[in-house]
């Protein structure tokens, strides 16, 4: 039996070439440089990382930076470190077992729990899609003056086109999503250059935890929900489960090592982009006394007199790239969740139509978009335990994971992350209800 097999043979040149190159690298039959060796394995984490820099992040980071300055930078750093660990475990689950997280939940838990977890995962998917869809529509409105409702319809059409790339295999879709991440990264690199932040304060607040009020806890929870996103945890295990199927222990370990590189690079970029968002808001708005700049529209309008047309344009372009890419990825995650929990598959276009309805209703109702985005991120944060806890339970089991089972230290750190998430959520709930 060969050491590497594909469940479904590639049927298109880009995908076939990628798998062939990956085989050569895993077998040690290549003399290419290190960059050429890792390229066939780069992609799944970049698709998953889109969820970590979506319009919900814009909303929470702008509010956090404008109201509290650099204070909540440490939340972004901690959230992204947790995200790296959890995304690594998710990728490992797919590689080791050939099944994704939702499928394992269906196989391992009783029926009533599966239906409950599916309902929660679907609620999270709707909240996710609301943030992403609304963000792209807002960007079109801000850049071109397009009415929000028509911008929402155009967003749906563009998302259909992006998802249509799936018929050509995983590589074209990965390339388009990665290119959009590049647009967001370059835009915020330019923004950071324009605002000239105080890097000593940035370094201090990036590593020193601090909360100044109940409201800062609310925004921090939104940042956590916007960063460690449950639907991305479900999705990543699906992206690796049959991309390259590895049979031998040696090959699986090698494949997992390359996946770690993919996660570190992709999530590292997402972390820097999120920090840049908050730094821009803190430097531009908070330090100017504009602490009430709490919406994406206000941020876009205020950037022009403070920093000029270039900053305003970069902001709008980055928001558009973020919204379109994350909306596409959100639809992919919704498919994985439904198919994994219920073993039912619906066409991507139908899934898209179902999930845009809440977004269009929000637009039509006239609700304030940015506040809606922030609340959607808090919903995501409360959905996290239902993805994180099963992930830890499964990856610590040797009967499921084999030689890729978690090291005890890995399980401890992942459990610590889960406890932190739960603690922050329950503390927030207490403050908002009993604590006043």
Tags for this model:
mainly alpha; 20 helices; two-stranded antiparallel ribbon; globular; disordered N terminus; 436 residues; single chain; Amino acid/polyamine transporter I; 78% helix
Layout of SSEs?
Layout: E1 4-5, H1 13-26, H2 34-38, H3 44-49, H4 55-68, H5 73-97, H6 101-108, H7 111-144, H8 148-163, H9 170-195, H10 199-207, H11 214-227, H12 230-241, E2 245-246, H13 249-284, H14 296-307, H15 309-342, H16 348-365, H17 369-383, H18 385-395, H19 398-401, H20 408-432
Antiparallel strand pairs: 1-2
Helix pairs in contact: 4-11, 4-13, 4-17, 5-10, 5-11, 5-12, 5-13, 5-18, 6-15, 7-8, 7-15, 7-16, 7-17, 8-15, 8-16, 9-13, 9-15, 11-17, 11-20, 12-15, 12-18, 14-15, 15-16, 18-20
How would you describe what is shown here?
The protein has 436 residues and is mainly alpha-helical. The chain has one domain (43-432): Amino acid/polyamine transporter I. 78% of the residues lie in helices and 1% in strands. The protein has helices at residues 13-26, 34-38, 44-49, 55-68, 73-97, 101-108, 111-144, 148-163, 170-195, 199-207, 214-227, 230-241, 249-284, 296-307, 309-342, 348-365, 369-383, 385-395, 398-401, 408-432; strands at residues 4-5, 245-246. The protein has a two-stranded antiparallel sheet.
Q: What is the gist of this entry?
A:
With 436 residues, the protein is mainly alpha-helical. 78% of the residues lie in helices and 1% in strands. The chain contains 20 helices and 2 strands.
